[in-house]
Design a protein that fits this description.
Helices cover 52% and strands 9% of the residues. It is an alpha/beta fold. The strands form two sheets. It has a seven-stranded mixed sheet with strand order 1-2-9-6-5-3-4, with helices on both faces. The protein has a two-stranded antiparallel sheet with strand order 7-8. GO terms for molecular function: alcohol dehydrogenase (NAD+) activity; metal ion binding.
Length: 425
């Protein structure tokens, strides 16, 4: 019989949300925590288009909910990547009209950000693009102790209905209270945050369901979680507690990703380790305020040029670490030590002819990314030298670049990193 493990995302606050559950099949876990943790009985389901079309995910969920006296209030299939305002407003209207008392997502990051946005919209009665944009901007201002814009809301009500997410990727947005939503008119991605500080209340991990995720998506989002770990260990403001969580994340993620790529061992067990590693990857930033850096900041700018969000890590992370090595070599050695002390990771490094004590962190990351089968350069994605100036200028406006171990304040600094990423030598 399946045994459930339930743990708080924040180990110091055992009674507070969010919680993580694994061990039960997702239909049973969902029904149990809707009823017993969230005290909800009318969930509105938002499910990815691919899972709806290619799996029996909904059919498996319904009887489990019925047996717990929980009934779906409605279902919405699919949301476009980047969580556009228009869809947030559309689905929020569906949720409001259904009389739902919570939102359940089955899928990846766009759905999760969408659900977080909808809950905030419903609490604050935002019905137009302008009202939604003003609301999101107000949440950011209040979060940073700044005055809200003229004409915007003076107060923001906390999200009104909880979100339960059944996760199928490793991008880890479910552990992040803020979310991002894209303005249809400008294509600008606006960050927002529930004033109560909770994004998703219950995170359900089911590695059997995660097997339906395409391998490239699984591995690339796993590398994105590795990026969270590396950049927080090598941060401009590292914290010992955060580093412990990030090292634990590396130890779960990279061996699990290698195992899945090689098709060795128990796939479900490796996927669960990856899921738990993704949770660890977010703790330094979310529990201890540790900043990420240039890989995230520059990656945000190359994503719109046709690089899948998670794969920006494959291009940026090694180069950023090489650039930063002059100021954080000691922190980079912590990561390298973790790599070489794990036999699976060390084996991958050795297969790429790296030698312990000689290879730097950028080289080691390059080897791991190549071992998992990903392109490494801008050229591989059709991005040429003619785009570098615009990428660099845009990067300077990104907070993550300003938080980099060497603050990226000049275009020439970003161009130096991008030259390492170009791949036209």
């Amino acid at each position: 019989m399946a045994r459930e493990t339930v743990e708080p995302f924040n180990p110091a606050k055992e009674l507070l949300l969010p919680i993580i559950t694994h061990g039960l099949p997702y239909p049973q876990a969902c029904a149990k925590h809707l009823r017993d943790t969230l005290h909800c009985s009318r969930p509105f389901l938002v499910i990815s288009n691919s899972l709806s079309k290619n799996t029996d995910a909904i059919e498996r969920l319904r009887p489990a909910l019925d047996s717990g006296h929980v009934a779906l209030a409605g279902v919405h299939v699919g949301m476009k990547p980047h969580t556009y305002y228009s869809e947030v407003l559309q689905v929020a209207r569906e949720v409001r009209g259904s009389g739902a008392d919570c939102i359940v997502t089955i899928g990846g990051g766009s759905l999760i950000d969408g659900a977080k946005a909808m809950s905030l919209v419903l609490a604050n009665n935002a019905n137009t693009h302008q009202e939604l944009d003003a609301l999101f901007r107000a949440t950011n201002a209040l979060r940073h102790g700044q005055p809200t814009a003229e004409g915007g809301p003076r107060t923001v009500h906390p999200s009104s209905i909880p979100v339960l997410s059944i996760t199928t990727t490793l991008s880890a947005g479910e552990f992040n209270p803020p979310g991002g939503s894209t303005n249809d008119a400008t294509d600008h991605k606006q960050v927002f945050c529930n004033p109560a500080g909770v994004g998703v209340s219950v995170i359900v991990m089911d590695p059997a369901l995660a097997r339906t995720t395409p391998e490239r998506v699984w591995l690339s989002t796993g590398l994105r979680a590795v990026d969270h770990c590396v950049e927080t260990i090598c941060s401009s403001n590292p914290r010992e507690e955060g580093t412990r969580h990030s090292l634990r994340g590396i130890g779960l993620l990279i061996p699990g990703l290698l195992e899945i790529k090689q098709g060795a061992g128990d796939d479900a067990e490796a996927r669960l380790r990856c899921q738990l590693g993704a949770a660890e990857s977010m703790k330094a930033a979310n529990l201890y305020g540790v900043k990420v850096g240039g890989s995230h900041g520059i990656g945000h700018q190359i994503g719109p040029l046709g690089v899948p969000h998670a794969e920006t890590t494959c291009i940026c992370l090694p180069a950023v670490q090489k650039f930063n090595a002059k100021v954080n070599a000691e922190q980079q050695q912590i990561v390298l030590g973790a790599f070489w002390s794990d036999p699976d990771i060390a084996g991958a490094l050795t297969r790429h002819n790296l030698v312990k004590g000689q290879a730097d962190l950028g080289d080691a990351l390059d080897a791991i990314i190549r071992e998992l089968g990903f392109p490494r350069t801008l050229k591989d994605y059709g991005i040429g030298r003619d785009k570098l100036e615009a990428i660099a200028e845009s990067s300077l406006k990104d907070a993550c670049c300003q938080w980099n171990a060497i603050p990226l304040e000049k275009k020439e600094q970003v161009l130096e990193i991008l030259e390492m990423c170009l791949g036209d030598q």
